[in-house]
Amino acid sequence: MNEYIEIKGARIHNLKNIDLRIPRGRLTVITGVSGSGKSSLAFDTLYEEGKRRYLMFSGTQFMVDAAPTFDQITGLAPTVAVEQRIIRQSNPRSTVGTRTKIGNMLAVLFATYGRRDPSYDDGLPLSMDMFQRNSPKGMCVKCLGNGNLYSIDEDKIFSDGKTQLKDLLVERLLYRGGARKRLDEFCAYHGLTVAQPLHTLSDEQLLALKYGDRGKTSFQGVIPWLLNGFKCGEISGRQNGILSEAYGKKERCTKCEGTGLGEHAMHTTIAGKTITTLENMYIKDLNDFLTKEKSGLPGMTLINEMILKLDCMVDVGLHHLSLSRPVPTLSGGEIQRLFLASFIIAQMDSIIFIFDEPTIGLHEIEKANLIQIIQNLVHRGNTVIAVEHDENFMRAADYIIDLGPDAGFYGGQRIFQGSFDDFMTCELSRTAPYLADQRKLPVKTTYSKINPAKMLTIENACLHNLRNLKVQIPLGVMVGIAGVSGSGKSSLISGTLVPKLKELLTIADEDEETVFLSDARVSGIEYIKKCFVIDQKPIGRSRTSCPATYTGIFDRIRNMFASTSDSIERGYGAGLFSLNSEGGCRQCKGDRVIRYHVGFGNYIEQNCDACGGTGFIDEAMEITIEGKNIRQILEMSVSEAIAFFGNEESAAYDKNICHILLTLERVGLGYIKLGQQTPTISGGESQRIKLAKELGKQSGKDRLYILDEPTTGLSFSDSEKLIKLMLELTGHGNSIIVTEHDPVVLSNCDYIIELGPGGGSDGGFIIATGTPEQLKRNEKSIIGRYLR
């Protein structure tokens, strides 16, 4: 067996034709500043080549890209990767139980050994699918397994006959993308225009508009579209929130009490508990229950297998989840650890595992356990490669690879490869000086004065494991929300405070659904002019969306192209320079690639031969500004674009574009490309793009920014930039609430609220509050011992 994975001439994205060797059977960390090429090496080179070789071995046929991204790779074994930017789950019915198969095991247990309530015994033998809400036999007949009932208020939608179709469907109902195309098809078939008022429609046309035209077009009707969107998650995020609030109503199903399960499941028990009761327990509590009761329960073999899986989930820091928890609500770090638990249970060896910052979302006290588990994978004969910035993780590694020295064009070089001890003496590295204490991250020595009369107060916070809390959050300062995983941080801020603020304020939050929690009370909002919720959810779902479209600068760029003399002479408008409009390639629809399904849930992407991978038609590519066409500009990094649009003597000069770009650079995103596709952007990058967008267009004070682990994916030097920006915001009279595990970020807060002491049923209390210095001296504080 080869002792090393040898890579020669790696050159994808910004990698500079580098040669590397990675030891087999060891733990290797790939580090470097954000945008230095870490993911390009780990995922786009090693994982993609490992996947390609496996598919070739399995007999799958596919085309080979004409442009190889390396010269040679030897010593590569079967490769498994869990990358944060591709593990976002969208199926709203997928839960922790279904993903881990523990839900299936419980269903088998209840079907085999369950005790039925005699009054609900219909004589039918129990079967596994009677305990699964996604099965026709197991789902509630009233809500069809959803747990909720949805209705639409038609009068609110169609009451004003003067409303034009465009105003109703595009502006109010937010028909976008494919939904808009289906609307245009409907209008063309029925002889309508989008400018036509509702009262001019015949009864037959109005009925078809409401409920669909029985398959004559792909337009399914407004009412079915809304209902399916609310039920199945097809209408997502802000759009779902707006529409459900304005026109829809969601009520808990009274027949199944919100469980989604049918009569058999609701009235069958084991040890006096229904399957729903067990699914709703925290993983730790369910594990404790099965361990304690297993001697008196039937199905010992099955129960022992479940306990093994639950033990692994507790070990990787998922004790605070429940089997009923929807997968789309998990963080990237939680999903990654869910995969890690499955790898441990499978007891595989001779595999190359590639992880993307596995410590994300973990408290300092929880990291040692995770590191030990990953080292156990290595001890079984596997190779583990992790893209990481965490100091604890790097110190535990057998081998370090540092890429850089900087980001984007100025990165992609091999700065170091070797042991951790040798790495600390590397003079070229941007990371090593922080590890060797030659350079330190900034830490506040004086704290902003807290005004006791200017507080945001939450009362009766009782969501999930919160213990009917009353919390006072100082305004005008930076407040950190700390606590171990599952202690109640997200329940307090994302689940309680944010929804209540949505009731009372205009909030810039494009991703969260509107949820009202009437039991909680919030006061002190009179001190806030506007609130910005900046989370890690994707900035768009379309593959043609990108930082340029999200921040709004692409509109200015397209107009700039449309105003050139060549465009004016040819009659080109701004739409010609849009991937989603007339300028998009007809074959790939602006996606730049054609995707081929090659089996086993895998896809191979090949550059579109019609557009050459540009995504644009030829006419759009022929127009240039200062010698650059539209694709060349989208391929620029933020830093490169600043130079291009910031030259006052150039025809491309635009101070508004530069303002947004400079803000992106300030939040550590100088390396990101203007046209980088949304699916390739991590959660941490998405959050910083959102922050830059708001900072670029807003000024003033008395604004509240709510952030969720903003340093995710950042190197030490990039974290330093972001911390300075956050301190600058509060210095201008704004407020920041940051949910965070990073001791450096928390050390720079003016006030910390710590929840705990444990996670799940052991959490939900306020265990410490005060300045970082006060928490250091507080014996009840867990985070206090890690603060700088």
Strand order of the largest sheet: 17-19-22-23-16-24-25
Shape verdict: globular
Average pLDDT, rounded to a whole number, is 88
Helix content: 25-40%
Runs in which pLDDT lies below 50 for 5 or more consecutive residues are 234-242, 511-518
**The CATH topology of the largest domain:** Rossmann fold
CATH architecture of the largest domain: 3-Layer(aba) Sandwich
Radius of gyration: 28 Å
Number of strands: 25
Question: Multimeric state of these chains?
Answer: single chain
Percent strand = 15-25%
The fourth-level CATH homologous superfamily of the largest domain is P-loop containing nucleotide triphosphate hydrolases
Q: Layout of helices and strands, plus pairs?
A:
Layout: E1 4-10, E2 18-23, E3 27-32, H1 38-57, E4 72-74, E5 79-82, H2 96-100, H3 102-113, E6 115-116, E7 148-152, H4 154-158, H5 165-172, H6 177-190, H7 203-211, H8 222-232, H9 237-247, E8 248-252, H10 263-266, E9 268-269, H11 275-279, H12 283-293, H13 300-315, H14 332-346, E10 352-356, H15 364-379, E11 383-387, H16 391-396, E12 399-404, E13 413-418, H17 420-423, H18 432-435, E14 455-461, E15 469-474, E16 478-482, H19 489-504, E17 507-508, E18 521-523, E19 530-534, H20 547-551, H21 553-562, H22 565-570, E20 593-597, E21 603-607, H23 618-621, H24 630-634, H25 638-645, H26 655-666, H27 683-697, E22 703-708, H28 716-731, E23 735-739, H29 743-747, E24 751-756, E25 765-770, H30 772-776
Parallel strand pairs: 3-11, 3-12, 5-10, 10-11, 16-23, 16-24, 17-19, 19-22, 22-23
Antiparallel strand pairs: 1-2, 1-4, 6-9, 7-8, 12-13, 14-15, 14-18, 20-21, 24-25
Helix pairs in contact: 3-13, 12-13, 13-14, 25-26, 26-27
